[in-house]
Amino acid sequence: MSDATTTSTPTTTTTTSNSKTALADAFRTHFSGDAPLTDKAKNFAKAKPWTSAALLGVAAVALLNTFRGARN
């Protein structure tokens, strides 16, 4: 009987994005790591300008709606 050694190669899993998880994957890609938050936000805005504009627009509308309800 001979001694056979088995070597296992590490398996890498690649996750494919669909339209529902693509934004979450983009956030995870751009906002992970040790860089300052401002650099991460700039990199995300450069990579996804339309998404950044839409996100900023939604935040602006939400802020304006909070001011609108402050009347007596």
TrEMBL record:
Residues 1-20 are annotated as: Disordered. It comes from the Bacteria. This is DUF883 domain-containing protein. Keywords: Membrane, Transmembrane, Transmembrane helix. It comes from Sphingomonas hylomeconis. The chain crosses the membrane at residues 50-67.
